[in-house]
Amino acid sequence: MQERLKALFPGLAVPMDGNNTPTYMQWGLACVRSRAFQLNKERFAMVPFLDMANHASEPNAAFRNSLSKDAVELVAVSDIAAGQEAVISYTECQGTTNMRMMQQYGFVLPGGNPADRIAFSALDTESCTGGALSIQHMEEVLGDMTFVDMMGGRLPYLVAAMKSLPLREDSTPPNASLAERRLVEHLISDCSKQLEGHSSSIQEDTAELEADVPKRDSRMKAIYQYRLERERLLEKTAELLRLYRR
């Protein structure tokens, strides 16, 4: 996108103040991307007043596009007491990944994001193509209570892990074939390789977040949180696969 804009507006592709600063185009693009609200499939708008509302996973307000008034309205979806903060959801109905949350708003959802997914390179290999794991066996290894909590959205990491995996609904016994056992091993290995590819461990990133560092840059804190959430999802997915393998 930046290359296309650079070609269209070459005069804006110069640093604002020295070589180590953003260009005017980059600054403008960042402002628009961070503040533009999607009103419908084809319409975005910059609504400064609405941008003052913070995000909450259980919002008490929402926004809507009033065509008759040619306005964007902030409306309550539950009772809001006088002096109580009005909060909205920054995620869409189908969910917004932590990557997009980080790109657009500079923060991620801690404690797991059900919209996140893991891309498994193993699924592109010839030996694993078309393979799938049994949903019924997943339910058995998790137990009824955990499975119900997951279906109710109360275990975000587990939701994201399950939706990342290739699953099937049939009565075929788990691990019945060499191909399925091979698939499980490849998926576990894939999680391990992705974790090893990070420059730090879960323990190190957790320690960084919990450390009492005076005047820490909030952007660095967001980076640690983003990386930690990704690491935890990979770890939870690997744990689920090991349970399935037993």
Write structural notes for this entry.
This protein folds into two domains: 2-93, Beta-clip-like (Beta Complex); 121-245, no CATH class. It is mainly α and 246 residues long. It has a two-stranded antiparallel sheet with strand order 1-2. A hairpin with a 5-residue loop joins strand 1 (36-38) and strand 2 (44-46). The model has no long low-confidence stretch (mean pLDDT 86). It contains nine helices and six strands; from the N terminus they run ααββββαβαααβααα. The protein starts with a helix and ends with a helix. It has helices spanning 2-8, 24-35, 98-105, 135-142, 144-151, 156-164, 178-196, 202-210, 218-245; strands at 36-38, 44-46, 61-66, 71-76, 133-134, 167-168.
Name the average pLDDT: 86
Gap from first CA to last CA: 47 Å
* pLDDT < 50 runs, ≥5 residues: none
Number of domains: 2
**Which word captures the global form?**
globular
Per DSSP, the total helix count is: 9
Give, in spatial order, the strands making up the sheet with the most strands.
Answer: 1-2
Structural class comes to mainly alpha
Amount of beta strand: 5-15%
The SSE order reads HHEEEEHEHHHEHHH
Specify the biggest β-sheet.
2 strands, antiparallel
Count of distinct strands: 6
Radius of gyration: 22 Å
Helical content (DSSP H or I, runs of 4+): 40-55%
Organism: Coccomyxa viridis
Pfam family, one: SET
GO molecular function: protein-lysine N-methyltransferase activity
Keywords: Methyltransferase, S-adenosyl-L-methionine, Transferase
